[in-house]
Design brief:
The complex is a heterodimer. Chain A is an alpha/beta fold. Chain A has helices at residues 11-15, 64-67, 93-99, 102-115, 136-145, 158-170, 177-189, 196-202, 207-216, 221-229, 236-248, 253-262, 273-297, 333-347, 350-355, and strands at 9-10, 60-61, 77-80, 85-86, 121-126, 129-134, 149-154, 301-305, 311-318, 321-326. In chain A, a hairpin with a 2-residue loop joins strand 5 (121-126) and strand 6. By secondary structure, chain B is an alpha/beta fold. Chain B has 2 domains: 16-69, no CATH class; 79-342, 3-Layer(aba) Sandwich (Rossmann fold), CATH 3.40.50. Classes of the chains: A alpha/beta, B alpha/beta.
């Protein structure tokens, strides 16, 4: 403590004047400090199902030739050459994009390099090679530092392997409600689970959550398309709000989809959706007559907005003439023309435009 | 009540003087700033005070003691249960504040709610009024059933730099009847930690706020700890309640912890010097439990009563964060640093915690 004046209040300070001289020491029935190692040890690996000889060294599978020599027991932990392991075909692409970011993997690699691999990955045997069930990130990390990888071997058929990958993926914190919903749907479609209660038991969650997540999939296709690109866009609560809005305003799905898209903006709250949609629908019905006229006249008008959703440009196509109107006073129209021509010259040839309709 | 505004929150951070104190740094301020820069902490270029965030203190600590940390063996963090059979002695307040203080000292801390009232969760600003909360009871039940524990779904980040996390609890924790028939229930918490070693070894310290009374969850939690920290007020009922704790300890030390008996540590809380009975009872505590007493007394301080607005949980936060320079916070800092030594808390190697974003589960608290 750098400032004793501000130090904590001490027992000795209170008792100094009151403790009788030579007071007998209090008996100590329990230890007053840790009596042994404070830290619990991490068990080296989950115990294999079958009783194995305690001190037997781990079999090391060095290459394909040697691998055949080992009698590999189900549930056994062995050291494997990472090159002998193939990715699971059941690992969805959705997982790959987000979880295999190089920075995260190299961080994991560093951890494994400094602390060792704390938990073995799970694999199943396919001929002389192995297929991954769980540990896609760890495998990539170990490949990076060129080490052997600890793995538990399971004997699984395709169906059980897919199921295992599913359950393992679901248990991760990064999974969003939408991804979980899709996973539940797949489990139901593949008949791994018959009812929502079965799904809940399979993924160790509550039946209520299963049904709420599955309900997400009944959102209109525009919103599902948004979720496909940004799975973490909507929480369960937000999805519930959107579903209630869909029921309330079935004619305004586009506005509801816009409201969903706005959730990706910073500071967006679930609570603001309802009032926003109501406001937009009210505004639309007010301006509806004039707008519908304008729409029917020229379908090919586009309003281009800036980051704060104010209209910045209007582009209009009439026959083969494109008119571009610049709204903001701060923007120099001649510069815009220059940039557009530059863009057309540089990147767009008549050839590329032929294939694009409209 | 919108808990998304508040959790995960940016921790308050501490000024240079406190940062130096937490790191035990005695050289000049200028040298300290150089050290911070060398550790990769960004300092403001204009003339404003730098507030050192927990993650930045951790960075400096790791930079400064790199050789010691490299030698740390991979193992699980120590468990500190705050327990006493009497209610209202300030366990929860203590756990929340010591958690915030140790995080600001650069240690990565996991708080676990062990009380079905959920008061620790609320004190940290987490609204427990939701249907998808996963608590310690669920985790242990999963371990017992051989299912994945789902601990990563249970954890709630309190600080956005990953330095303080919480496993919340609510009234459904009171439904612990399943433990009655669980064979080997005292070892369940240890098993949870070992099965989720990956998860637990991210932290330097695990603090559990136990429920008053003798609940069945208390056994497994105490079994995992080197020492049980009792929070006692210098008042007759509270002093007598230590007997209940002692009998629990005796039983555990005669059975599951016979190989390495659990110790006891006592912190006096809510001391008010003008109250003669407080001084008398403190004297009694010193006489009967002298060797177990922490040197520092946590005084009765009005700031502890300001931690939460009963109408709006979302603004709740521990005194240490709200009023870091108050006498109450000073007592907490002194107690927290003595506990770090006592429990042998060490900075662990491994990557720095990643900043966290609010998860969907946090958003679930937003009323429709």
């Amino acid at each position: 403590m750098t400032n004793p004046r501000r130090d904590g209040y001490k027992v000795s300070g209170v008792l100094a004047s009151r403790q009788p001289e030579g007071a007998p020491a209090a008996p100590t029935e329990f230890p007053t400090a840790p009596t042994g190692p404070v830290l619990l040890a991490i068990p080296p690996a989950p115990a294999p199902a079958a009783p194995a000889p305690a001190a037997a060294p781990l079999p090391v599978v060095r290459d394909q030739v040697h691998s055949a020599e080992w009698e590999l027991v189900d549930g056994q932990v062995i050291e494997l050459d990472p090159d002998l392991i193939d990715d699971s075909p059941f690992q969805g692409e959705a997982e790959e994009g987000q979880r295999y970011d190089p920075a995260g993997i190299s961080e994991l690699a560093q951890t494994i390099a400094s602390e060792g691999q704390l938990s073995p990955i799970k694999v199943r045997r396919i001929g002389k090679r192995f297929e991954l069930i769980a540990g896609h990130r760890r495998l990539r990390a170990v490949r990076m530092i060129k080490r052997k990888i600890l793995a538990i071997i399971y004997t699984l058929d395709d169906k059980s392997a897919e199921r295992a990958v599913m359950v393992d993926n679901e248990g991760r914190q990064e999974k969003t409600d939408y991804q979980r919903a899709k996973l539940y749907r797949r489990a139901l479609d593949q008949a791994y689970a018959k009812t929502q209660n079965d799904v809940a038991a399979m993924f160790a969650t509550k039946a209520a959550l299963v049904s709420r997540r599955l309900k997400m999939l009944t959102l209109p296709p525009q919103i599902l398309a948004l979720l496909e690109t940004t799975p973490n866009l909507l929480s369960l609560t937000t999805a519930d709000i959107l579903l209630s809005l869909v029921a309330q305003y079935p004619d305004h799905l586009d506005i509801i989809a816009q409201a969903a898209a706005r959730q990706s903006e910073p500071g967006a709250t679930a609570a603001s959706i309802k009032p926003w949609v109501a406001q937009m629908i009210a505004a639309k019905s007010l301006s509806a007559p004039s707008q519908s006229k304008a729409n029917s006249k020229d379908m090919n008008t586009r309003v281009i907005t800036d980051a704060s959703k104010r209209s910045a440009y209007t582009a209009r196509l009439k026959g083969r003439v494109i008119t571009l109107r610049v709204h903001s006073d701060e923007v120099d129209a001649s510069t815009v023309l220059e940039r557009v021509s530059e863009f057309l010259e540089r990147s767009v040839t008549p050839e590329t435009l032929k294939t694009e309709t409209q | 009540m919108n808990s998304t505004n508040h959790i995960p929150r940016r921790p308050a951070g501490v000024r240079l003087k406190a940062a130096k104190e937490f790191l035990g740094y005695v050289d000049t301020d200028k040298q300290f700033r150089e050290l911070a820069r060398a550790a990769g902490v960004e300092l403001p270029t204009n003339n404003t005070h730098k507030l050192y965030l927990p993650s930045e203190i951790r960075k400096i600590r790791r930079h400064r003691f790199a050789d010691i940390i490299a030698a740390t063996l991979p193992s699980l963090p120590p468990v500190m249960p705050a327990r006493i059979t009497k209610g209202g002695t300030g366990k929860t307040t203590f756990v929340g504040n010591v958690g915030a203080a140790t995080a600001h000292m650069g240690y990565r801390v996991l708080l676990i709610e062990g009380d079905a009232q959920g008061s620790l969760s609320e004190q940290m600003g987490y609204d427990i009024d939701r249907d998808d909360l996963i608590h310690l009871g669920h985790l242990l039940e999963n371990v017992r059933a051989g299912r994945p524990s789902r601990i990563r779904d249970a954890v709630v980040p309190i600080y956005d730099d990953g330095m303080l996390d919480l496993i919340p609890g609510d009234i459904t924790m009171a439904d612990e009847g399943w433990l009655l028939t669980a064979v080997g229930r005292e070892s369940l918490f240890v098993r949870l930690m070992q099965e989720e070693a990956d998860f637990f070894s991210q932290y330097d310290l695990v603090i559990v706020d136990c429920a008053p009374g003798t609940t069945m969850l208390a056994g497994p939690i105490m079994t995992a700890a080197p020492l049980v920290t009792a929070i006692v007020m210098p008042e007759p009922q509270s002093v007598r309640a230590l007997k209940g704790l002692k009998s629990n300890l005796k039983e555990l030390n005669a059975s599951v912890r016979a190989h390495q008996p659990i110790g006891m540590h006592i912190i006096v809380n809510g001391f008010n010097a003008p109250f003669k009975p407080h001084v008398d009872n403190l004297e009694k505590l010193a006489r009967d439990y002298g060797p177990y007493l922490n040197n520092t007394i946590v005084r009765s301080y009005v700031g502890f009563k300001r931690e939460m607005d009963p109408d709006d949980v979302s603004t709740a936060m521990p005194l240490f964060e709200r009023e870091p320079l108050s006498p109450g916070a000073r007592d907490i800092v002194a107690v927290a640093s003595s506990l770090l030594t006592l429990y042998g808390v060490r900075l662990r190697s491994g990557p720095m915690p990643k900043p966290k974003q609010a998860t969907d589960d946090d958003l679930a608290a937003v009323p429709a």
